[in-house]
Structures are given as structure tokens and as C-alpha cells.
Specification:
Layout lengths: L1 E6 L7 H11 L5 E6 L5 H10 L4 E4 L13 E2 L1 H6 L4 E5 L2 E5 L2 H12 L9 E5 L3 H13 L3 E5 L3 H10 L8 E2 L1 H6 L6 E4 L24 E4 L8 H8 L3 E3 L2 H16 L5 H13 L2
Parallel strand pairs: 1-2, 1-3, 4-6, 7-8, 7-10, 8-9, 10-11, 11-12
Antiparallel strand pairs: 3-5, 5-6
């Protein structure tokens, strides 16, 4: 089975390690490769992958939207969000999926079983593709009160409008969000702020949270970001970003092969990999 990842730059991606582990776990012959290409070579690379009968591949920046015209079908999430991160070759046709939200929710519930029990009030920080995917998945889960905060409040409002949630959700500035943190049960940081090498950066102070708040960060390098360190110091429950990456991969692998995977043992190996143990 030929699998892979297309994007740029992707030389340091952990996806090959994860998916080759999954192939081994299920006793399947195959290989997960990196298909790195700059934007002017994207069309040729997709045609090469089709000709080579790549059974499935992941899509990362900057191609999650650009891939759409090359696909024959989209799942509901990909169609609604206008972005794809997983593609399956199905009877000669390429089908696109968006697993951002599904992978995130699986990782969240895996660590905090009560995280999506209603009623919950959720604050999402950021308005990019990950924020959209997570917002969509939370809505599908039945969580109604989801606010978005962003440096540019208009972008936050656009996400809310696009997801038809304007009657129940608010777009906030980061300063407004910081002043209202006490009201939220779950706070999700979806931007690249805090990613190495700028690992001491945070979007806002968490001085207003309570000890029952779940604070989540999708950044996974470093594993425990400055945002999560502050949350933990204030007594909050924390959720790491690497869980989302692993659960997305497990879900993508299931889409390609039909084989589900228990994440618990693999999570231990993945954490050792991230820590360099």
C-alpha cells in the first residue's frame, strides 16, 4: 500500500513515523512517503501520484484548499469547510476528507472524558483552518455556545458567519476574551503561537480561569507550551496538541484501510518519540 503526505515544507513531518507504525501494528505491507513540492509543481505532483496509484495521502499547508479541484468527491466536513487534509483513492476516484475536528475531538475525549458533555461554554482562540474544523466538530457534537477570539475580530466573525452560528456565538478581541475567561469550560488555542522556536509566546494571560477549566493547545512542539504551563500552574486541566496529530492519523488510516486502532499504546510510543527518549 502506497501512502503519503503532500505539502511544503514537510521535511520534518512526523507523519511517516506515525503511519509506518500503523502499518506495522496491522501487519500490512506498505510505505508512507513525503511528497514535498513547491506551489508551481503542485499540479504535476498530483498527476504523478495518481499515475502511481497512491492509495491515500494527507494534505497539509499550503494545499488544503488548492487540492479541491483535483478531487472527485468530498465528505460533508470537507465540503462545508472548503478544505481537505486526507484523500483516499476509491475505485479510481479521489475522495477528500477533513479530519481536523474529528481528530481533535477524539484526542480531547481520550484525555478528558467529560470535555464535550453539554452544556459547555467554549472559547476558541484563532480563526484559521484548524479553528474552523474544531468549531464545526463541536457544533456537530451538540455544543452550542462557542465563542471565537482573534487578533482581527472581523476574521473571527467571518468564521462564525460561515458556520451559521452567529445567533449563539460571539466574535471577541483577545482583550475581551481575556476579561471573560472565567465563563468558559474549555479554552482551545488553535494558532501557531508558542510553537518552537518562539516557545515562550502566548496569545493572552490565563489569570481569569478556574481550576475546572480545560485548557487545550494544538501546538505539539514543544509538547507543553507556555500556554499550557500557565494553565497548569493556575490549577486548570490541560490537553496537549500531539494527541490531535496522532488521532487524525489514526482516523486517516482507518479511512484508507478500514482498520481502527487503539490509540493508548501508540500514544506512549509517540510521546517517547517527541521527547527524544
Amino acid at each position: 500500500m502506497k501512502l503519503g503526505l503532500i505539502g511544503y515544507p514537510i521535511a520534518h513531518s512526523l507523519s511517516p513515523w506515525i503511519h509506518n507504525q500503523l502499518l506495522d501494528i496491522h501487519g500490512m505491507l506498505g510505505e508512507y512517503q513525503l511528497f514535498e513540492c513547491e506551489t508551481d509543481g503542485f499540479a504535476d505532483k498530483i498527476n504523478e501520484m495518481k499515475a502511481d496509484h497512491i492509495a491515500g495521502f494527507n494534505v497539509t499547508v499550503p494545499y488544503k484548499e488548492r487540492i479541491l479541484p483535483y478531487l472527485d468527491e468530498l465528505d460533508d466536513a470537507a465540503r462545508f469547510l472548503g478544505a481537505v487534509n486526507t484523500v483516499k483513492l476509491d475505485k479510481g476516484r479521489y475522495v477528500g476528507y477533513n479530519t481536523d475536528g474529528t481528530g481533535y475531538l477524539a484526542s480531547l475525549v481520550d484525555r478528558h472524558a467529560d470535555a464535550v458533555e453539554s452544556p459547555k461554554q467554549v472559547l476558541i482562540l484563532g480563526s484559521g483552518g484548524a479553528a474552523r474544523g474544531i468549531f464545526y466538530a463541536l457544533l456537530k457534537q451538540g455544543i452550542k455556545k462557542i465563542d471565537l477570539a482573534n487578533r482581527t475580530i472581523e476574521k473571527a466573525q467571518q468564521v462564525i458567519d460561515d458556520l451559521s452560528a452567529s445567533s449563539i456565538s460571539q466574535a471577541l478581541s483577545l482583550k475581551e476574551a481575556e476579561e471573560k475567561l472565567v465563563k468558559y469550560d474549555l479554552i482551545i488555542q488553535t494558532t501557531s503561537v508558542g510553537m518552537s522556536p518562539n516557545h515562550e509566546q502566548t496569545l493572552l494571560s490565563l489569570s481569569g480561569i478556574t481550576k475546572d477549566t480545560i485548557v487545550s493547545d494544538i501546538v505539539y512542539r514543544p509538547m507543553k507550551t507556555a500556554f499550557l504551563r500557565e494553565a497548569e500552574a493556575r490549577g486548570a486541566r490541560i490537553h496537549y496538541g500531539h494527541g490531535m496529530l496522532l488521532h487524525q492519523a489514526i482516523y486517516a488510516f482507518q479511512i484508507w484501510t478500514g482498520k481502527p486502532t487503539d490509540a493508548s499504546e501508540m500514544m506512549k510510543a509517540f510521546e517517547k518519540k517527541l521527547k527524544g527518549v
